[in-house]
Amino acid sequence: MEKPYEIVIGLEVHVQLLTRSKLFCGCSTEFGAPPNTQTCPVCIGMPGVLPVMNRHAFELALKTACALNCEIAPFTKWDRKNYYYPDLPKNYQISQYDLPFSRNGYLEIRSPEAEGGRRRIGIIRVHLEEDAGKSMHDEKAGRADSRIDLNRAGTPLLEIVTRPDLRSPTEAKVFLQELKLLLNYLGVSDCNMQEGSLRVDANINIRVNTPDGPVPTPIVEVKNMNSFRAVERALAYEAERQYQEFLQTGKRLGEVPKQTRGWDDEAEVTRPQRTKEESSDYRYFPEPDLVPVVVTEAEIARIRASLGELPAALRERLERSYGLTAYDSDVLVSQGRPVVDYFEVLAQRCGEGKLAANWVQQEVLRYLNEKQVGIESFPIPAERLAELLAMIRERTLDTRRGREVFARMLTTGETATEALAALGFVDVSDEEIHALCRKLIAENPKTVADVKAGKIKAVGGLVGQAKKINPHVDPAKVREVCLRLIGELA
User: Is the pTM of this model over 0.90?
Assistant: First the structure.
């Protein structure tokens, strides 16, 4: 059944950069300091002060733009964006308007909703600006007071504006997850939404299918979304709200002004806030106190060379080199480069990529999550774990006992061989297993007849007897040998 409407989404993502000082002054950007203690005459807008650009912030911004496949402008300038709000002490924000330092990029995401399973999301522009302060409201306390903390004012902020290429709330969430991963790999931001270092506004409208053709609803900007899950839920709600409004009005809505709505996470609804501003409302003009920035081809080449292997390329290489599924590679890459490095050593030493991926995802990550530590604190080096996996791969040790050995290695620091000996596990040779299987087949003619008649599950009885006779045998190997020997019987 054809959907009654198509969703169209574009995102505006604001990312605080990992610098020690602010964009135009030397104040600290450290999070969590007492309110208004990380300020100076420059970032609170005192008369007569002059800003000076943070070169490191510009380089981090340039690195991000290159990773997003943007065209880098050789010449860029600063502009003043004028608006009045209590947390903007200068009553203007130093930003970029008509000459941003980068534009026309893209980020490719994996999307089951797109043809071929991938969608390329266009990036209109990536530009650098200073952050505003923070307003803290006390509505819940009943006083409706507001306090202003200017510690964040002047922090370097990267604005990433996408084209309206996203076609569902789920795709919007996937895009944000991929962007966050990319920024983490680049080391340009910690992307901590709880601390406000990554913030998202979404522009959404729908195209309603009618007998006369698609009818677009007015664009709505949705704010106040504090998690990727909240983004997904807010956009799903807003799309359906616009559709219901369209059905109720029974008329074209193209001339209705653009609107800004806020997401109420508790009520799970969007609420109207104000009419959406246009760029003319901000009365942009060139910033007179800052010189333009010129970027050379040599500098751009140096930045591109420093990017390293990015998540998309890394996922593809893991799938190609180690035979992993898209799911496996995605889980590993999403954990960060140190986990991927651990996996690669493990896979190369044990000789099987899929086995290594399974153990990292199930056993290693379980330990890291329980202990709330990084891979650098994991007590078993990859080379040592590879010894255990090699035993499992060669079937000298079954998976169940392998986990027992693994648990002992975690607590004692022993090698796999030492843990195996301490647990009293005995290696059973192929000859011993074959002899045991022949004995069981000879003693259980009914089971053999059932297997030959197609009741393959009946072989489980032989496996159970084998374990009783010798607890050290590998059940999988016993099953394999029994089926082969039965198949060879006339």
Answer: no
User: How far is residue 199's CA from residue 224's CA, in Å, rounded to a whole number?
Assistant: 9
Cα–Cα distance measured from residue 377 to residue 341, given in angstroms and rounded to the nearest whole number: 14
Number of structural domains found in the chain:
3
Burial label, 242 (beta-carbon count in 10 A; 0-12, 13-18, 19+): buried
Contact between 166 and 172 under an 8 Å Cβ cutoff? The reply is yes
Range of the domain at 344: 309-422
Q: What is the CA radius of gyration of the chain?
A: 30
Per-residue pLDDT of the chain (490 residues; tens, 9 = 90+): 567 999 999 999 999 999 999 999 999 999 999 999 999 999 999 999 999 999 999 999 999 999 999 999 999 999 999 998 889 999 999 999 999 999 999 999 998 888 888 999 999 999 999 999 998 876 555 566 789 999 999 999 999 999 999 999 999 999 999 999 999 999 999 999 989 899 999 999 999 998 888 888 889 999 999 999 999 999 999 999 999 988 887 655 555 677 899 999 999 999 998 776 677 788 999 999 999 999 999 999 999 999 999 999 999 999 999 999 999 999 999 999 999 999 999 999 999 999 999 999 999 999 999 999 999 999 999 999 999 999 989 877 778 889 999 999 999 999 998 998 888 776 677 888 889 899 999 999 999 898 888 898 999 999 899 888 887 777 888 888 999 898 888 5
Confirm whether 346 is domain-assigned. Answer: yes
Q: Is 261 part of any domain?
A: yes
